[in-house]
Amino acid sequence: MAYRRELPDWKSEYLDPELETMSVEQIKALQVERLKATVAHCMNNPVYKERLEKAGVTPESITSIDDIRRIPFTTKQDLRENYPFGLASVPLRECVRLHSSSGTTGNPTVILHTQKDLDEWANQVARNLWMVGLRPDDVFQNSSGYGMFTGGLGFQYGAERLGMLTVPAAAGNSLRQIKFMKDFGTTAVHAVPSYVTRLYEVMQEQGVDPRKDTKLKVLAIGAEPHSEEQRKRIEKMLGVKAYNSFGMSEMCGPGVGFECKEQNGLHFWEDYYIVEIVNPETLEPVPDGEIGELILTSINREAMPLLRYRTRDLTRVLGRGCPCGRNHVRLDRMKGRSDDMMVLRGVNIFPIQIEKILMQFKELANNYLITLTTDENNDNMTVEVELEELFTDDYQRLMQLQKDVKRALKDEILLTPIVKLVPKGSLPVSEGKAVRVIDKRTVYN
Q1: What angle do CA 281, 284, 288 make, to 5 degrees?
Q2: Which of 417, 426, 226 is nearest to 334 (CA)?
Q3: Would you state the pLDDT for residue 445?
Q4: What are phi and psi of 251, to 5 degrees?
Q5: What's the rounded Cα separation, in Å, for the pair 80 and 364?
Q6: E strand or H helix at 16, and its extent?
Q7: CB-based contacts of 243: which residues, under 8 Å, 6+ apart?
């Protein structure tokens, strides 16, 4: 008989009340128990066994969460060097699926799953969707890529586990996406933020009013960094609530962290993961509230649990406890990646800083492009951003807007970029993750 989950009363705010509302003390006790079991399980893998023994780490030596700092870090390079199955902790015959990154530079990173891993993943995603108010009578349209990318199948099985009618629309073909929304009564959509704005542009072109012509109420957005200003724009455009989602294939995929209805940070599920924030240079812990690199340890996986995985994502702890009743740690939205940081004339800059400023100007559209060049031995930044409407009859207004945008960007990034205001629709549009930065410099910092 096919798996079918027993769902709580639809009025309940929690899909897994016992796990979602644990006290901090209960969470830490469960984490210690699961970390000990995960370390024991990782001993089945030769690479981890050698590392743990060298560090003097055994399951018995773990008595508190702080003991995790004795465990060596795992990196993306470790996955590539042990490609494809060298970090598996179970025989290949026990695995039923794999996912991988695109592998555009070197070997892709491959992650294996047992059937239990897939079931837990589906439960985890279903927990997130229930948390933001979705129920079995909703219609969930997944406008994400399927296949090796985890976003498609991760949300697909989570939505099915919750009991919703699911529409595996996949990425792209905006006209079809809109038709499905109207014809099927779609109430919830999962998509990357940049594609949501593209969908809205097509709706405008087709004379579709999302507030009147669709039943949309919830968006799950993630897979690319986006600012709070971008989220607010999306909510205003479509008349929905947009909830930030975080996931990565190394931890299974989407569902690792998700916002609740309070939208006051991503709840990271600590019955599945141990969260650390460290200084990316010293690798020492940083105080709560300080930005650092996110380190994750999976403690509820069979095929390929990863110990202290360096995600390269930059964020900070916002706190614990929440009006929603969940005590799982809350993290800020991802500021960017430590390896995505631009260094220009000695200044560290993240693309999301620029987006935050651009989205504050109602005259500007959502699409922008940052280009870095070297001119006469000097590094320069050009920010091209589309106008919401053309000011063909008001040159003075256009020049003033350009001046205001340049000044606001300088105040934020401490450098004066070249700002170009371009007609709407003139910059490249991607149906996947948006390309925001092109680095053409001949001299790198």
Answers
A1: 110
A2: 226
A3: 36
A4: -100, 5
A5: 41
A6: none
A7: 132, 218, 219, 220, 221, 258, 259, 263
**CA–CA distances in Å: residue 55 to residues 33, 72, 427:** 20, 7, 51
Buried (b) or exposed (e) across 343-361, using 16+ Cβ within 10 A?
ebeeeebbbbbbbbbbbeb
Tokens of 162: 């919750």
- Residue-wise pLDDT for 206-236, tens only, equals 999 999 999 999 999 987 777 888 899 999 9
Strands ordered across the beta sheet of 241-248: 165-167, 139-142, 188-191, 218-222, 241-248, 253-259, 266-268, 330-331, 317-319
Between CA 265 and CA 131 the distance in angstroms is 13
For 133-261, list the strands marked E by DSSP: 139-142, 165-167, 188-191, 218-222, 241-248, 253-259
User: According to the model, what pLDDT value does residue 191 have?
Assistant: 93
Q: What's the rounded Cα separation, in Å, for the pair 255 and 36? A: 23
Lowest mean pLDDT: which of 102-116, 200-214, 263-277? Answer: 102-116
Are 71 and 308 contacting, i.e. CB atoms less than 8 angstroms apart? yes
Using one digit for the tens of pLDDT, what is the confidence trace for 284-323? Answer: 999 999 999 999 999 999 999 999 999 999 999 999 999 9
Under DSSP, the state recorded for 14 is: -
- Rounded to 10 degrees, the C-alpha dihedral 163/164/168/170 comes to -110
Backbone φ, ψ for residue 394 (5° rounding): -145, 75
Least confident of 293-297, 394-398, 419-423: 394-398
Q: What is the pTM of this model?
A: 0.82
